[in-house]
Amino acid sequence: MDLSGKRILLIISGGIAAYKSLDLIRRLRERGATVRPAMTAAAQEFITPLAVGALASDHVYTDLFSREDEQDVGHIRLARDCDLVLVAPATADLMAKMAHGLADDLASAVLLATDRPVLIAPAMNPKMWTAAATQRNVKTLKADGVHFVGPTSGEMAEGNEAGLGRMAEPLDIVAAAIALLGEGERPLAGRTAIVTSGPTHEPIDPVRYIANRSSGRQGHAIAAALARLGADVTLVSGPVTIPDPAGVTTVHVERAEEMRDAVVSRLPADIAVMVAAVADWRVASSSGQKIKKQAGEAPAPLQLAENPDILKTVGHHEERPKLVVGFAAETQDVEKNGRAKLTRKGADLIVANDVSPGTGIMGGDRNRVKIISAAGIEEWPDLSKDEVAERLARLIAERLK
Ligand code: C5P
């Protein structure tokens, strides 16, 4: 097994074991991974960004406050545009910062911001490793879902001192990364998925349109989560300001009818997740010219026509995907309306959420959903949209087994 196509963000923190990270970069790349390196200030005392950058064939990220780096990628995207965050070596200091959520430099900020799996290879003096504070931090990090490889025991670099604290060998770190990212983690490999996301814009005339407050965050996160589980994902997105997710084919559309055509033309597929907040109505005959305000005249009334229901079209299509998932954004009777939608639209699952004013869900970062299926209702706790996406992708994989 290898790491082809895997994007690894390698954070190097400051310890003498950093010299082994140079070899680690080569071993990861030999197996097909792309390695994007980030270094703490202390790491740069042991090895140079020049050597790291040359071996990785990539820019080395070092500074949280570098205007160039922040504009280019930004620490939040750096934290997410990868399949794995690998910390090698992980010093006692960086582990302490991780355990406490400190974020005063690029490495710690990325580690706090990431929603990807994190694998760390601790390296430190045996006394530092067995220190009560470090052991408390290890426990915390494990409870937080951080994966460990090593440390191992043996001679320390300083000589005449031995014990547990040596960084795992590069090949063992590679093996741990493969185990984490291996096929077992890709239950949707070989499956195709279509996801819609964002609002639609329905033109009134060349400069005006009808829209809604959807940001596309939930739909984009679902497309990315399905791709992480191995699915071949096409995302059909309405106009949004967020970037296209990594590892996904994104098709940009504006109007509901364009979105419907883009979705239907990509059938058959195994999975359809219709998350877009499609406008229910469009302007019946939008004007080819900008509508002029006429002094003293009442505004021309807007005639609306119903838009195609994309979820319903897919749910009743002769090439209906095996699993059709819809969303139900409601402000009242969330459960009752969700159930009705399940049958009417021909969906297998409806993800229902309450978007009442004040919930902050529409356009926000978090979501609280109920999963409605023929079998019943499952209520999920308040989660980030990325966590909802991750759970939903796993549920989809489970249902397709
Ligand atoms: O009927 P309602 O708009 O509440 O249904 C929401 C669900 O239907 C969402 O999954 C949404 O993406 C989908 N939908 C659609 N096309 C429409 C309207 C809604 O695909 N025209």
Task: Please identify, by name, the CATH architecture of the largest domain.
Answer: 3-Layer(aba) Sandwich
The tally of helices reads 15
CATH class of the largest domain: Alpha Beta
Structural class: alpha/beta
Question: pLDDT under 50 segments (min length 5)?
Answer: none
Please give the radius of gyration in angstroms: 25 Å
The named CATH superfamily of the largest domain: CoaB-like
Distance between the termini: 22 Å
Give the total of domains.
2
**Number of DSSP strand runs:** 21
Mean pLDDT score: 91
Q: What proportion of the residues is helical, as a percent range?
A: 25-40%
The shape, in one word, is elongated
Give a list of the ligands: cytidine-5'-monophosphate
Q: Enter the CATH topology name of the largest domain.
A: Rossmann fold
Spatial order of strands in the largest sheet: 12-11-8-13-16-17-19-20
Biggest sheet features: 8 strands, mixed
**Strand proportion:** 15-25%
Description:
There is one protein chain. The chain is an alpha/beta fold and 401 residues long. It folds into 2 domains: 175 residues, Flavin prenyltransferase-like (Rossmann fold), CATH 3.40.50.1950; 208 residues, CoaB-like (Rossmann fold, 3-Layer(aba) Sandwich), CATH 3.40.50. The protein contains 15 helices and 21 strands. The protein has an 8-stranded mixed sheet with strand order 12-11-8-13-16-17-19-20, with helices on both faces. It has a 5-stranded parallel sheet with strand order 2-1-3-4-5, sandwiched between helices. Helix 1 crosses helix 10, helix 6 packs across helix 9 and helix 11 packs across helix 15. 42% of the residues are buried. The chain binds cytidine-5'-monophosphate. Cytidine-5'-monophosphate binds next to helix 13 and strand 16. The site of cytidine-5'-monophosphate (C5P) has 14 residues, from helix 13 and strand 16.
